[in-house]
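HOLO CASE FILE
Compound: S-adenosyl-L-homocysteine
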Amino acid sequence: MDRVVLKTMSLPALEEWLAVFIDKPFRRRQVRSWLYAKRALAFADMTDLPQALRDELEQRAVLMTISPLETSGGGGDGSVKHLFRLSDGETVEAVYMPGDRHPTLCISSQVGCPLDCTFCATGLWGFRRNLTQAEILDQVIRLMASAPAGAPHPNLVFMGMGEPLLNYNALLGALRILGDGDGLGYGARRITISTAGIPERIRQLADENFRPGLAFSLNASDDERRTALMQRAAKHSIRENLAACEYYAERTGRRVTLEYVLFAGINDRDDDAARLRRLTRGRPFKMNIIPFNPGRDQVSLKQGPAQGELRRPTPAEVERFVGKLLPQVPAVTVRWSQGTEVDGGCGQLRGRKLEEDGVAPPDLSTD
Ligand code: SAH
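Model generated. Tokens follow.
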């Protein structure tokens, strides 16, 4: 008998599936609570279930879909990056960042990424597959289990590997369980989806009944420069994307974050600042400037069509650029990426591991 992966089911479907062989409703509630509220890592840990039921679950079902492979951590900011192995041997990364008040969990949505942005280590290794709903939820569960005792409830950001809106159904299924009081109980405000920008999907998400925070990776002030940096994502124009973001903000009553990875000499000029001021004027956005994190594999990153080498700006350069945005651009923050010492940039730990295993990045230059 093929075992059922429990966390690929919605909560109502899980209830139905359990009812086939568990008569008592309170027993079914116990199982559900072990899955999500108590986040058991093995059926054997479900100590208040009769042994016979634990055995039966073990025979019928799969509890965990990812297993720890490697961690890289203990950097100055306390971030820990986790590399997980999936049941088909693929690997995926997620990061635990302690933060000042709340920890943040950075979660992946795909193995690799089909977008292949010039500056991102994930795209370099090509696209393997979408993650399942269960694999998304299990990253959260594994990272929560790794938190120090007494750590506050974390926030979640979908800023790991992959483009979340290209794995819409699994993402939405995971969000429903994350947001459900009978699931993981995360408020919508504790979750942020970061997207390279697919306007129709942004609008679709805006019309769902569970709507997390949204961040859009703008990364350039005009479509030409954006195409040089993010060729595939940039087939949707900045204008279309910002209109969809505005719709999202209207539907949710929350500002949409515009993420802007800052590359010295590439997108930090005076005319960039002027265009950003125009693009954001009077609109429900806030800006997050992310100084480019080259990672240690910068030499092996393909150059792409962007002119000039991609360089991390100095703190003074960042400050100068931010000074040009203020005060017209609302709420500008700077995020010096956490976890740079732990291969914390997207896809860097997985890349290092693949290299150690003798795997070379695929040649993407012809497609
Ligand atoms: N595909 C989604 C989510 C993953 S990337 C998206 O594009 O938003 C999450 C964020 O990290 C994006 O804003 C992206 O632009 C940024 N990012 C990717 N590589 C980076 C790097 N090397 N240095 C700094 N930020 C990077």
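CASE NOTES: The chain has twelve helices and 14 strands. Residues 298-307 have pLDDT under 50 and may be disordered.
CLOSED: yes
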